[in-house]
User: Which sequence fits this backbone?
């Protein structure tokens, strides 16, 4: 195989890294293939050098490993053939030159090996190595010397950045220390040195700026897939940023990189990332939140320990006789010195506890927990008694209680109900530090965001002093202006080019044609404006039915007759023209009501009437649990709803944005939003009359939410929607029913009035507090 062919393999194996780096490696491989300087024994180390260089530059480990195997397969036979040819030539000349020929070959092998070692340590990042001089002869090289120097500088910068191991702080794991294998308390104390003064509390009194400015960085996910390129991140202290973008664009990856300090966040800035649920144990929920502030916990422990030591010293002093010998006097003096030292230390502990307002901690923790849905009784339940969703709320409560300088939230509304989202929104509006939240909940972003960051096309665009609605309007205006400018330039270019083509060879007009050629060359090259991703969901047409469709009369339900009743005396009907939103706190019985409506659970009292021909499309909140993720979407649908051809299944999936090969790959490779789209596609397979949707907006991006809302509005059957997404409720429903303490009643007002009632109730009880 030719050296150019091997170089092309290098380029194909690393298409996403900087071109100067890939060209550098391609040139190096070309040199290896065209040179007779190496021996077969050294090929493996040379290929390893190229492989490591590509991986460190951000190439896919899997692709580069395959490349290395191919290079070895090509180069080893090549060098063996060259060695055999050299031996044959030396033997033909005579024994007198044979030794020198063999020595020459060995010397050359040592030279290139030494060269590689130098490049991998000092030479690559220091002096420039002349590849042509190696081996004593000139070799055609594809590497431009200036590009080589530039590549060396870039590689050095990337390797230095990746070599930084900030062992001091991996903040995302403060929520769940088990993932590090390190004790939470020890880890917290190590990474959060207590800094006091100026009334700032723990970590709040230093004069250093808490603004974050990270310039010109690349960010990768998985095996070398780049999600941000030559990007800058700017977060002003005290601002609340909404980070938005399509599903799979890398928003969560950016949050994790900040939390783990893979990006250079200043060390004096504390970070908490609500990513993992709290581990369950026998610790009460309230104590778990208090324990999250390890400095307070440690200071209280020190206070108790010092107080006990002082009491012991007082007892010893009281036991000493009034008349003392020299040894007893010395002992008394020592005890008094120890007491003075302990008094001084205790005063310092008191000062620190006062500075961090430790006396208010319990009431503040209880307020946060109550706002997130934990009743006074639940706050004293052990953490292992809560489900995963409630432990995520507990993780959020711990983060809010610690008040980090940078709070990172990833889709927090997915784990909350409307009352809790209302509380969180109100709480964050008074939050004193910086917040970066990933969310597709427009109403939530409208309430809490002071700025929007739009992640797309490997870059971040900033919209200052904007909530979601303002961002959307501004971005649309930007896009229209860019499109208008682009179209105007294209028309002008076409006009100039037409004149040039017509009069280029006309002697009388040649000067004007040349003038227009210069104008054309000076025009800036504009990129066509980015088009928004558009999705269209489509539910099937509805066969008409005579009422009643679904009727609940005096229905009660309990999983265990000896325990509390989940639903009590519920009267509710759903017709083909119904557009009902069901809201209420988590645990109030909303999902249970849906199960009774759909026939998955039988009422313990009362009657449920359903039309005999009724078909229901049910979207479960945890729909992924029912999917076989080892199958493709097409295979799973064929297995679960047989009777159609593969083409019909693919066409049906295409109506919900699962197009091309997405329907044929394993569902475990799909994003959360794509799995949801598969679930929505399955709703239409039985041509339902009624859609019962339990939290359908979770995991969908803006385009998916728009498509779902439009599809619901076009659906001609009835809809019963359980959702925390205020925007989705406003866009798709006409009636609001509230589930509270087992009762289900119609609310005579819209969702905004319902939220105002929640805030009024919280304010009267003192739950929502400004910071």
Assistant:
């Amino acid at each position: 195989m030719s050296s150019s062919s091997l170089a092309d393999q290098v380029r194909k194996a690393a298409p996403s890294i900087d071109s100067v780096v890939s060209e550098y490696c391609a040139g190096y491989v070309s040199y290896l293939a065209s040179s007779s300087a190496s021996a077969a024994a050294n090929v493996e180390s040379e290929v390893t050098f190229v492989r490591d260089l590509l991986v460190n530059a951000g190439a896919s480990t899997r692709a580069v490993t395959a490349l290395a195997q191919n290079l070895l397969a090509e180069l080893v036979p090549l060098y063996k053939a060259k060695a055999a040819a050299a031996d044959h030539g030396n033997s033909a000349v005579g024994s007198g030159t044979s030794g020198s020929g063999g020595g020459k070959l060995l010397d050359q092998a040592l030279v290139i090996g030494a060269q590689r070692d130098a490049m991998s340590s000092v030479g690559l990042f220091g002096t420039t190595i002349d590849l042509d001089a190696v081996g004593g002869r000139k070799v055609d090289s594809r590497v431009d010397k200036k590009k080589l120097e530039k590549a060396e500088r870039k590689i050095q910068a990337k390797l230095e950045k990746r070599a930084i191991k900030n062992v001091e702080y991996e903040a995302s794991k403060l929520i769940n220390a088990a993932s590090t294998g390190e004790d939470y308390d020890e880890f917290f104390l190590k990474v959060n040195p207590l800094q006091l003064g100026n009334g700032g509390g723990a970590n709040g009194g230093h004069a250093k700026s808490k603004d974050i400015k990270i310039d010109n960085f690349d960010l990768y996910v998985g095996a070398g897939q780049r999600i941000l390129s030559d990007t800058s991140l700017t977060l002003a202290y005290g601002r609340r940023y909404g980070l938005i973008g399509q599903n799979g664009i890398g928003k969560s990856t950016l949050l994790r990189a900040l939390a783990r300090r893979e990006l250079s966040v200043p060390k004096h800035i504390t970070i908490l990332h609500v990513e993992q649920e709290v581990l369950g144990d026998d610790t009460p929920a309230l104590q778990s939140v208090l324990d999250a502030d390890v400095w307070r916990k440690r200071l209280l422990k020190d206070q108790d320990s010092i107080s006990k030591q002082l009491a012991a010293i007082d007892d010893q002093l009281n036991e000493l006789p009034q008349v003392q010998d020299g040894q007893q006097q010395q002992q008394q003096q020592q005890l008094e010195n120890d007491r003075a030292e302990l008094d001084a230390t205790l005063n310092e502990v008191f000062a620190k506890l006062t500075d961090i307002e430790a006396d208010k901690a319990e009431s503040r923790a209880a307020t946060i927990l109550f706002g997130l849905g934990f009743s006074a009784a639940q706050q004293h339940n052990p953490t292992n008694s809560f489900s995963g969703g409630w432990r995520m709320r507990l993780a959020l409560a711990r983060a809010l209680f610690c008040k980090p300088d940078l709070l990172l939230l990833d889709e927090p509304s997915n784990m909350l109900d409307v009352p809790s989202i209302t509380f969180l929104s109100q709480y964050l509006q008074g939050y004193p530090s910086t917040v970066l939240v990933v969310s597709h909940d427009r109403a939530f972003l409208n309430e809490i965001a002071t700025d929007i960051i739009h992640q797309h096309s490997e870059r971040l665009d900033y919209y200052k002093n904007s909530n979601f609605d303002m961002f959307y309007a501004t971005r649309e205006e930007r896009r229209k202006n860019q499109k208008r400018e682009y179209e105007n330039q294209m028309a002008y270019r076409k006009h100039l080019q037409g004149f040039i083509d017509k009069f280029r060879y006309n002697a009388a007009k040649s000067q004007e044609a040349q003038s227009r050629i210069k104008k054309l060359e000076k025009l800036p090259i504009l990129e066509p404006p980015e088009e928004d991703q558009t999705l269209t969901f489509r539910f099937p047409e509805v066969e008409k039915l005579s009422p009643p469709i679904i009727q609940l009369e005096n229905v009660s339900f309990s999983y265990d007759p000896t325990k509390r009743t989940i639903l009590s005396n519920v009267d509710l009907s759903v017709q083909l023209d119904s557009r009902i939103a069901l809201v209420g706190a988590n645990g109030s019985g909303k999902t249970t009501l849906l199960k009774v409506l759909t026939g998955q659970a039988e009422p313990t009292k009362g009657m449920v009437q359903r039309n005999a021909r009724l078909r229901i499309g049910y979207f479960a909140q945890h729909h992924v649990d029912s999917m076989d993720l080892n199958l493709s979407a097409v295979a799973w649908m064929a297995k679960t709803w047989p009777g159609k051809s593969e083409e019909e299944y693919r066409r049906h999936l295409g109506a919900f944005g699962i197009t091309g090969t997405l329907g044929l790959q394993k569902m475990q490779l799909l994003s959360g939003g794509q799995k949801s789209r598969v679930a929505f596609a399955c709703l239409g397979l039985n041509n339902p009359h009624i859609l019962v949707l339990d939290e359908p907006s979770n995991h969908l991006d803006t385009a998916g939410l728009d498509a779902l809302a439009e599809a619901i509005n076009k659906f001609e059957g009835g809809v019963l929607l359980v959702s925390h997404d205020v925007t989705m409720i406003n866009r798709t429903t006409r009636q609001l029913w509230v589930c509270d303490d087992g009762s289900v009643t119609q609310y005579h007002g819209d969702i905004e009035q319902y939220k105002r009632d929640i805030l009024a109730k919280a304010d009267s009880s003192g739950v929502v507090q400004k910071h």
